[in-house]
Design a protein that fits this description.
The chain is mainly alpha-helical. The chain has 5 helices and 4 strands; from the N terminus they run ααααββαββ. Helices cover 76% and strands 5% of the residues.
Length: 247
Amino acid sequence: MNAAPADQIRLLDLQALDLKLTQLAHRRENLPEHAEVRTREEELTQLRDLLVAAQTEEGDTSREQTKAEQDVDQVRKRATRNQERLDSGMVTNPKDLESLQSELASLGRRQSTLEDVVLEIMERNEAATARVAELTERVAAVRARAEDAQARRAAATEEIDAEADGIRKEREVVAASVPDDLLKLYDKLREQHGGVGAAKLYQRRCEGCRLELNITELNEVRDAAPETVVRCENCRRILVRTPESGL
């Protein structure tokens, strides 16, 4: 393939722009904010799960407490009725009196036990309520940090995208000045060789593979006409000759 030396040199300008785009894409993909957002979202998910569990515990213990307090109230009311009967003097049968007094004692023990249950449930409910408050605060704090990271990521992404858009427009101008067949070869090689399709021959070294050309290869390049598109024998990229090639 033949191409004017100036067109070949323009490939280096095109390659430089493509490398910038590749670097920007890599930078965009590897923004530290990406990892930070993922970390915050994972933390937020865990905290929300813990909060749901704590809220469930709070609701369960609240219902338990209500039920236990109702049980205490029922026992207390029954004991009050029995005490009123006892105090009224209406029960005169010794056997009935003994039974009533025995039931009052039993109700007293039952009430004491139930009140202990109520206290234990209250303590669990208070602990669950405190846990809900703590986790709610932590969720809000982590959410704020996540939103901050997301905002910083969006700003960084927008900045990179704007820079990339400018480079792409510049690339369109440069690419339009390169002959179609040379451009197609360059794009094909760039796709095959890790984003680098053309490299400068600098001081007898290919800047694509970083290998120095041996004497035979140098002679072949030296003898090639300026319009001949030469390729590196090592990496097969387009080898662009300049005054710095060392030929």
